[in-house]
Amino acid sequence: MPTNDEYWVALQQRICAKCVDGDGSGGCRIAPGHDCALGTHFPQIIETVNSVFSSSVEPYVEQLRKKVCAVCTGQSSEGACRLRDETECALDRYFPLIVQVIEETQLKKRLQT
Ligand code: SF4
Ligand code: SF4
Predict the structure, then answer these.
(1) Whose CA is nearest to atom 1 of ligand 2?
(2) Longest C-alpha distance within the chain, in Å?
């Protein structure tokens, strides 16, 4: 199983490097006072993705809503999220690719051992 550091490096290379809030090289340029849910909920995201195995993204999204969005300050008690609605949450915006990166990192590690 990859370490959290290995997952994080892979996500920085593949997600942050493409993110509209990134610097193009994997660094984050999100506005001061704002947190990216990818970083804030990082261990839960890894756990969430690893709890699902499907060729479809829906079961992953379903678990993301249950395990991450449900405890995120961005979501109201009614389950609404303005950041999600306005595609301002990088975690939600890139989630299908995030799932792919996490699963590929895991597979790569398995093939190395
Ligand atoms: S906003 Fe999130 S996904 Fe985007 S560069 Fe920053 S940490 Fe990475
Ligand atoms: S979509 Fe909203 S509730 Fe879910 S992680 Fe992003 S900001 Fe938090």
Answers:
(1) 84
(2) 45
Ligand 1 pocket residue status of 39, Cβ below 6 Å: yes
Ligand 2, closest atom to CA 82? 2
Backbone angles phi, psi at 20, to 5 degrees: -65, -20
Average pLDDT in the 53-65 region?
97
Please state, rounded to an integer, the average pLDDT across all residues of the chain: 96
**pTM listed for this prediction:** 0.95
Long-range contacts formed by 31-38: CB under 8 A, 24+ apart:
36/90, 36/91, 37/68, 37/72, 37/74, 37/83, 37/89, 37/90, 37/91, 37/92, 38/11, 38/90, 38/91, 38/94, 38/98
If you search the block for the tokens 């506005």, which residue do you land on?
31
Residues with CB under 6 A from ligand 2: 37, 68-69, 72, 74-75, 81, 83-84, 89, 91-92
Question: What is the pLDDT confidence band of residue 24, given thresholds at 50, 70 and 90?
Answer: very high
Domain ranges of the chain: 4-112
